[in-house]
Amino acid sequence: MRLIAQVVIGYMYKVLKNNIDTSKFKEEFASIRHGDYSNFLNLIGDEIDYVASSINGVINTDTKIREDDVDFGRLFKSGESLKSFYKLCLKEYGKILDSDIPDNIFEQLGLFELSLRMHKNNNLPRKGRITLETVINELKEIKKLSNEETEILHKGRKFLNNVKRPNKMKVDWKDGIKEFTSAYTLIQSKKLTIY
After folding, report:
1. Cβ neighbours, 10 Å, residue 8
2. Is 174 buried (19+), middle (13-18) or exposed (0-12) by CB count in 10 A?
3. Region class of 19: left (phi > 0), else alpha (psi between -120 and 50), else beta
4. Of 54, 98, 138, 184, whose Cβ has the fewest other Cβ atoms within 10 Å?
């Protein structure tokens, strides 16, 4: 199963990794990256599909993102806007071939950050934009991760940072992919993924 979010975020990371000018969609990229769905929806403006949810036994059919929506609900409500944004990006940047990182790793990178942020937000109150480093450190406490497991997640985070900002340092992409794959396997085994 592939989520539209992993496709869009994976593509976004591919744009960043290849040093393509993102100024046209700077706010949209930042909103997606940090899980700020309310801002993203305001920027794209697609109507949210009808969604019924139950919060503390109260049925809700609100088509706006609510403060008490869990992150998966926010992500689900963003689906149509993510599709529209992906079409805009494809029109702007076209198909991008990357010789260092396969497409499935780009998509896993998107799920990696999104999943960790979602599990953190579903266990602790949502606080504005916080770094992925802080998210991992908070998940260490919430999920009782060992120091070794936490370090594996941080290595995955560092690889993601290299993808987002490849011009800042020299990267051995093959080694980075191995370290990231270990981190992604860990979140799967710890049931810290979205699905």
Report:
1. 24
2. exposed
3. left
4. 54
* Average pLDDT score over residue span 91-116: 94
C-alpha span between 114 and 106 (Å, rounded)? 13
| 194 inside domain | no
Dihedrals φ, ψ of 54, to 5°? -125, 125
Token pair belonging to 169: 């340092």
DSSP state of 50: P
Number of domains in the chain: 1
79 contacts 4 by C-beta, under 8 angstroms: yes
Separation of alpha carbons 4 and 23, rounded Å = 23
Our CA angle for 134, 115, 151, nearest 5°, is: 45
Instruction: Classify 53 as helix, strand or coil.
Output: strand
pLDDT in tens, 129-160: 788 999 999 999 999 999 999 999 999 999 99
Q: How far apart are CA 193 and CA 172, in angstroms?
A: 26
User: Which residues is 54 bridged to in the sheet?
Assistant: 59
Quote the domain boundaries for residue 8. Answer: 4-189
- pLDDT per residue over 40-57, tens digit each? 777 876 566 656 555 667
Whole-angstrom Cα distance, residue 183 to residue 112?
8
